[in-house]
Design a protein that fits this description.
mainly beta, SH3 type barrels, 152 residues, 2 domains, 14% helix, five-stranded antiparallel β-sheet, single chain, 1 helix, 44% strand
């Protein structure tokens, strides 16, 4: 009787182990080109769903025929042409209505660029506590509260 229970438990453990291994985690990626048109299907002939700029971060859900199925900061899904993306660095996008741009973690607001609106993108450089160090496409570095951005 005990052997039957042990075998049943062993079978359940094996099934759960294989199910866990089959779950694919989403991979972070960023737009590496100046602009990218997101599509409703993996084709340049399908309707555009969003036009994004360099450093826009996404979670890659799957890939097919040179296209990535991606999830954006709002949880919406799109198709992105694979050659317009990279996994070589992390990126960040403002997810709040507005985020103050600072010269140091918790420091003064930047003199020239005081804030960034929702969907403004950056290349992510690192963190210090609850702050993220980022750089924009022009090379200007800032610190932003991590709670105000989505990093991938």
């Amino acid at each position: 009787m005990m052997n039957k229970h042990f075998l049943l438990l062993l079978q359940i453990v094996v099934v759960l182990l294989f199910a866990t291994l089959m779950v694919v985690e989403a991979q972070a990626l960023c737009v590496s080109s100046k602009f990218a048109n997101l599509r409703s299907r993996p084709s340049t002939k399908s309707p555009k769903t969003w036009k994004v700029v360099k450093y826009m971060p996404f979670q890659k859900i799957k890939s097919t025929k040179g296209w990535y199925r991606v999830r954006d900061v709002d949880g919406d899904y799109h198709w992105l042409f694979a050659k317009l993306a990279t996994t070589k660095y992390k990126c960040a996008v403002v997810k709040a209505k507005k985020a103050n741009l600072r010269t140091s973690p918790g420091g003064k607001v930047h003199k020239k660029y005081t804030s960034a609106e929702k969907y403004v993108t950056f290349r992510y450089l690192g963190r210090k506590g609850s702050w993220a160090k980022v750089v924009d496409e022009q090379g200007t570095k800032f610190w932003i509260a991590r709670s105000l951005i989505w990093i991938q």
